[in-house]
Structures are given as C-alpha cells and as structure tokens.
Design brief:
about 425 residues; alpha/beta; Conserved hypothetical protein from pyrococcus furiosus pfu- 392566-001, ParB domain; 3 domains; four-stranded mixed sheet; about 15% strand
Length: about 425
C-alpha cells in the first residue's frame, strides 16, 4: 500500500548499509527525475528497503513529506530478508557490506528452510546454490564471499584490504601462517646438533654468540630498495620487513660489526646486496674491520631471467660481496662468477630464496668440514641445508615468525629425508 507520510515519522536504524556512498548525487537524480521506487516501510514506519533514497530526500532535499510503500503483516525475519536481498542485488554496497549481507541472507534462508546436506536430497532445503540464484550470482563467487565473511570474523585486519580479491589473498596467507606456526611448534623427532634454527632479531641473537667462534658468514640482508612497497613481488606476496634504504643500510651497518665480532680470526663473509648500495655496504663492512674485495662476485641465474619490463632488459644475475677477517686462504682458485639455476617458483618457501647448490659452492670455498656457518637473515633456511650437505654446522637466524615457521618445516623435511646423526654427519643417500 502506497501513501504519503512525514519524513520525521520514518525510522531508520540497524541497517545492513552503513556507508551511504555518494548520496548527494542520488539526491540530484531524485530532484531531477523523481522517485521511481519509493522507500519500503513496515506498519510502524521502520525502513525495510530504500534507506539511501530516504536519507537523500530527508537530509539533502529536506523534504518533509514523501511517498512510501507500506508492507503489511510481515514478521521480522521476512523484513530483514527483503532488506538484504534488495541491498545485495543493487550491487552498490562496499565489498565489506556485501560480504556481511550475503552471509546474513544465507544464514536467514537456512534458518527458514533448513540446510541442504551434500548427497542427501530433501525438498525445500537451502544451500549455497540457492543463495546464488536468489541474488543472481555464481555459486563460486558466493562461496568465496561466505568464506571471506567468516575469515574477517577471525582476522578483522582483512577488512582493511582494498578489495575482496586482495582480502582473500590475505586470508589464505594468514591461514597458511597459522598452520605453519602450529607445525613449527610441534616437536620433531630428530637430533638438531648440526642445525641451530633461531627465531629472533638478528642483532640480539648475534650478540649471544661468543666472539671468534664462527668460521664463515653467508647471508642475504634486506636490500633497501623498497621491496616491501614498490616491487612486483610486493603485489603478489607480503614482504614482512621495512625495506627502505635508510632502515636497511643502518641494519647492515650494525650487523657488520656483530658479524666481525663473532667470526674467527681467519675467516670469510659473503653478503648478497643490491648493486645500487654496493659502495655503502663496502663502507659498512670496512668500518666494521673487514677487508673487502671491491669487485663483487656475480651469481648468473641460469634457467631464464626475470620478465622484461618493456624498455628495460630482464635481470638475470645478482651480486654479492666477499670480505674477510685475517688471512685464511680460500679452498680453490675458482672465479668470482657463479652459474647456478634459480629456484623454481613452485619450490620456493621464501621470496628471496637462493639455490642450495650456489650456497654449497660458497661454503665449500671458504670453510672446512665441522666448521660453523652463520646466516643472520636466514629466510628459507637454504644456508642450513647447504651447510649440512657439506658437513658443516649452521646457525640460522630469522626474525619473522611466519618465515621462521616455513624455514623450520623446510629444513626439518630435509633433515628427515637425508638424515643427520648425533655427530653431525650427513648420511649418504
């Protein structure tokens, strides 16, 4: 039944829509073309549908009297059902509101009709396909929305993402991290004499290591190139550290001092770096006491380069610095060019993972069996695996709890598969 009412008599509260969007533009449209579908109210003048239209007429156009459609003899569930369906089908909710409305509508329908059980046909029961048909969506998209709506209840920070696809990526990441933390917290039935994995801040953990006790350092610190904000990688995965130039170079400066302290009197250090900060890093290492080869070593990434970016050449190599404390000779006279296949994306457990074969070559070059190798930015734990294969001990430090969980699982899988005895000897396969 349609009738005219005073806007002051209409009540609007407990609405699924809380973001009214560009309501001024809606008011201009109503003023120019009139109202095609009046707001719908119940017999007590509570808004059921058309909250934005009513708000535009009352607050922007300052109308004191409007036409409404009065829905009679309806219960509370039916009124809420109508509101949810109307708002979802309009498709102008924010993505967060749309998720919440879809979930509530689905649950209301199940409360009314009962849930559909997979493999059991019961007439009248409600399932995801029925909700999808009601709001003219695909079953897959509704399933994703329902999963994401539940995910937001568990991880509220997901709602800060710009859209539902980024939110789903974040949800999957958080779920994976939760599983990895659970796995990493379990005891592993294997001796860990050979590999010491440490979760913590690199500087704090390095300070716990006695001076002159480490034979070799191999590490890949943050590069200070804005990897966390400005790279293609940052759009595909979460970079869990501040990769600004200032923060990264200061961290490297402080780490260089601690690495010099813990390294033995005659020992070597290899550190990967961005070519843009090469001279700053050389300076930090020299200030710490190291002698540094001013010509960096090169890892040629066989197996293809990075995708071309239009006007620039694909990158197919990385550089790393070689520094030393004292006068320990290297174990071979090989060149400073290292050619090894990159780690396939499907096998990576860390975005900056280096091939174990490359790290084995470096470890074999500058240490002896039984020596201890330290990596204070351990990432994937590849250094630990490479050291174990070459019969060296390893101390690997990783700050990120999520990365540490992945690293621990990755290294434990290697230890279980290849075997490490109490004396630290890797069993031959």
């Amino acid at each position: 039944m349609r009738k005219k009412v005073k806007t002051s008599d209409v009540k609007i509260a407990n609405r699924v829509r809380y973001d009214m969007g560009k309501i001024e533009e809606l008011a201009e449209s109503i003023e120019k073309f009139g109202i095609i579908h009046p707001p719908v109210v119940d017999e007590e003048m509570n808004i059921i549908a058309g909250g934005r239209r009513f708000t535009a007429m009352r607050d922007i156009l300052k109308l004191e009297e409007i036409e409404v459609d009065v829905l009679q003899n309806t219960d509370e569930i039916t009124r809420r059902e109508l509101e949810l369906e109307e708002n979802i089908q309009r498709k102008d909710l924010t993505w967060q509101e749309e998720l919440a409305a879809t979930k509530e509508l689905h649950e209301l329908k199940i409360a009314i009709h009962g849930p559909r059980v997979k493999g059991i046909e019961v007439p009248g029961r409600w399932g995801v396909q029925d909700t999808a048909d009601t709001i003219d969506r695909t079953k897959g998209s509704v399933s994703m929305d329902l999963k994401l709506a539940e995910g937001i209840e568990q991880y509220p920070e997901i709602a800060d993402e710009p859209n539902k696809f980024q939110a789903m990526k974040k949800l999957k990441q958080l779920e994976e991290e939760a599983i990895l933390r659970e796995l990493s917290s379990r005891e592993v039935d294997i001796e860990q004499d050979y590999v010491n994995l440490v979760q913590g801040d690199c500087l704090e953990e390095l300070r716990k290591i006695p001076e002159n006790s480490i034979a070799l350092a191999v590490t890949d610190p943050p590069w200070g190139v804005g990897m966390d904000k400005n790279s293609q990688l940052s759009r595909k995965t979460t970079i869990e550290y501040d990769d600004s130039t200032e923060e990264s170079l200061e961290l490297i400066r402080l780490c260089a001092k601690e690495l010099y302290r813990v390294l033995a009197e005659d020992s070597h250090l290899f550190m990967f770096c961005a070519i843009t900060h090469l001279y700053s890093m050389i300076q930090s290492l020299e200030d710490a006491g190291f002698e540094v080869d001013s010509i960096p070593a090169v890892w040629v990434k066989e197996g293809g380069g990075s995708p071309a970016k239009g006007f620039s050449l694909p990158s197919a190599y990385e550089i790393f610095l070689h520094a030393w404390k004292g006068r320990r000779e290297l174990n071979s006279g090989r060149s400073n060019v290292f050619q090894f296949n990159r780690v396939p994306s499907a096998q990576k457990v860390h975005s900056a993972q280096k091939p174990e074969a490359l790290l084995e070559e470096i470890i074999e070059l500058a240490s002896d069996p039984g020596d201890t190798v330290v990596d204070c930015f351990a990432g994937s734990g590849a250094t630990a695996i490479a050291a174990a294969r070459r019969k060296r001990k390893a101390i690997c430090i990783e700050k990120s709890p999520a990365n540490f969980a992945r690293m621990r699982e990755h290294v434990n899988e290697f230890l279980i598969q290849e075997g490490v005895d109490r004396g630290g000897e890797v069993e031959e396969a």
